[in-house]
Specification:
Elements: E1 13-15, E2 18-20, E3 25-33, E4 38-45, E5 49-56
Antiparallel strand pairs: 1-2, 3-4, 4-5
Amino acid sequence: MRSYPSNFIYSGYLDYGLVMNRGAAGNYWSSTANSSSEAYDLGLSASLGPGTSTANKNSGGSIRCLISGA
């Protein structure tokens, strides 16, 4: 992801059942599984930009349709 719009609405993320950093950051699931219990996710932050990691599927990440440009 080279850039993203400045008006992007960040969903926040779950931390022990509480929504944290709503409006400032968010974690979004990839459609690609890493294992039977983990999937890749894209973390977006207004201050840090994009990053990828893996997370447990039980963590309750958001789903947002994003189109990747070539």
